[in-house]
Amino acid sequence: SKGLKEGDPEWPEGDPCSPYRETSVEENLKLFNDMKVGKFDEGVACLRMKMDMTSANLNMFDQVAYRVKYVGHPHIGDEWCIYPTYDF
Q: Hey, is 59 helix, strand or coil?
């Protein structure tokens, strides 16, 4: 399959980068800790992997790795509220 390039109909409009992409490591660690202790509602915050935003493969753009979800875990109960985004 051919790679996409800017201008192709499937290419996202505007800048595909999150406005938070260049946030400092220190601020990201603070925000991650805030996620971990439950300071965000579901759907308000996520953790993205910083990937290749210049790739012709849109799957290589920054992917969401973790999100806040307030459900009990079968082994640790309510100790953790950050879960991977994959579904089984």
A: helix
